Amino acid sequence: MKQLTRICWLLLGTVFIFSGLVKLNDPIGTALKLEEYFEVFAKDFGSFFTFFIPHSRTLSIFLSSLEVVLGVALLLRWMLRQTLWVLLGLLVFFGFLTFYSAAFNKVTDCGCFGDFLKLTPWVSFAKDTFLLGLWLVVFLNQRYLRRVFAKGTTGVMYITLASAVAVGVGVRALGHLPYFDFLPYKIGNNIPQLMKPREQAKYQYVMERNGETKTFTEYPTDSTWKYKSMEVLNPEASKPVITDFSIFDAEQQNHTDEVLKGNKLLLIIQNVQDADRDRFKDINKLMEATAKSRKQIQPLIITSSSPQEFDAFRHDVNLPGTYYFADATVLKSMIRSNPGFILLQDGVVKGKYHYHDIPDASKLEDLL
After folding, report:
1. How many Cβ atoms sit within 10 Å of the Cβ of residue 280?
2. Which residues form the Methylamine utilisation protein MauE domain (predicted)?
C-alpha cells in the first residue's frame, strides 16, 4: 500500500502540473473554453454566469496557475492535508463540468489539456473520476507521505516561486502567441492539404438475411441481403482537419482559393470592438511596405465583423487594403491575437505574429 500511495501521489501531482502548464501555454484558448461554459450555464441556470464572461482571461490564468501550484505543493508535500482539500474542490468542480457536458451534450471538448489533447466529454469525465480515485488513495494513506520536502520558509519560497513562474508563463503567452501551437494553422502547415481528407472513407455494412446478421466491408451484390446499418471505419482519417476555412467578400463571393495562392500577408482582425487600436500606426506601415515587396507579397485583411462595422473601423484607424470576411471561430483558431498577422506561401503558413511583435517587411521576405 505504501508503494501504491506514492505512485498515486506522484501521478496526481504530475497530472495537475502538466494540465496547468498546457492551459497556460494558450491562455486565450482556455479563456474561450471558459466563455463557452459560462454561456451554457447562463442559458441553463441563469444570467448570473454572464458576469464571468468579460473576466474569462483573468480566470484562465488564475485557474491554470492554481493547478500548477497545487501540483507543486502536492509533490513537495507542503501543507499536505490543506492542499488535498483544495485539490478535491477542483476535482469535484471539474468532474461536474465534464459530467454535465457529457450527460447533456453541452460542450463537446472540455479543454482539460488545451488543444494539445482533445478529449470527448465522457472520456474527460472518466479522467476526472480516475483522478478522484488517485486523490482518495493519497488522502486515506497520508501516513506514508510524512516526509515533507520543503518546510517552513523554504516551502513558502518554493510555492511563491511556482506561483510567479506559472503566472508569468501565462501572462507572456497572453501578450504574445502560444509557446507551442497545437492548432491546425500552426507554422509549417499546408492549409489546402488539411482541407482534404487524408484517405478515402472506408465503410462496413451490417446486412441481414433470414434472421442472420453479417458484416461486409463492401456492399454485397446479392440482393437477398437487406441493409441494416453502416459504419465508417476510419472517421478521423477520412475527415479533413480543417473543415470551415472559407473567405468571402461583402457580396458573399468566395475568395478562398485566391487567398491560398501566391504570397499573402493576412491581417486578422477578429472583431473591431476588441481590436487593439494603438498598434495600427505600425500595422499600416507594414501593410504599405509589404505591398511594395520584391517577393510580391499581397497584403489582405480578414475580419469577422460586419461590413458596416468594419468600414467604420478601417476609416477610423486609416487602414488601407483589400478586406474580406470569415467566420469568427475560424479566425480565433487561426491566431490568438486581435489583430494578428499570418504569412502564407501558396497556403502554407510561413509565419505568425502577435500585434506586440510586428515584423519588418524584410523579415517576411526572408521567410519566403
Report:
1. 21
2. 1-139
Q: What is the DSSP letter of 50?
A: G
Domains (range + CATH), the chain: 2-175 (no CATH), 197-239 (no CATH), 256-366 (3.40.30.10)
Burial of 51 (0-12, 13-18, 19+ CB in 10 A): exposed
Of 139, 142, 138, residue with least CA distance to 10: 138
CA 88 centroid distance within chain: 25
Handedness of CA 116, 120, 126, 128 (dihedral sign): positive
Residue 75: Cβ-neighbour burial (10 angstroms; 0-12, 13-18, 19+): buried
CA distances in angstroms from 260 to 94, 109, 298, 343, listed in the order given: 40, 29, 11, 11
Taking Cα atoms as reference points, which of 59, 136, 35, 56 lies closest to residue 95? Answer: 136
Q: Which residue has the cell 475580419?
A: 303
- What is the amino acid identity at position 251? E
Q: Give the containing element (helix H, strand E) for 324.
A: strand 322-325
Give residue for cell 442559458.
Answer: 43
| The three grid cell numbers given for residue 37, joined into one nine-digit string | 461554459
What's the CA gap between 135 and 19, in Å, rounded? 16
**pLDDT averaged per 10 residues, the chain (length 368):** 90 94 93 86 81 91 95 93 93 85 70 66 84 92 87 91 96 94 94 90 90 88 89 84 92 93 95 88 92 91 93 90 92 94 96 94 91
226 phi and psi angles, rounded to 5 deg: -105, 135
In 199-274, where does DSSP find H-type helix?
Answer: 256-259
pLDDT at 114: 58
DSSP 248: B
82 burial (CB, 10 Å; 0-12 / 13-18 / 19+) is: exposed
* H or E segment to which residue 86 belongs: helix 80-104
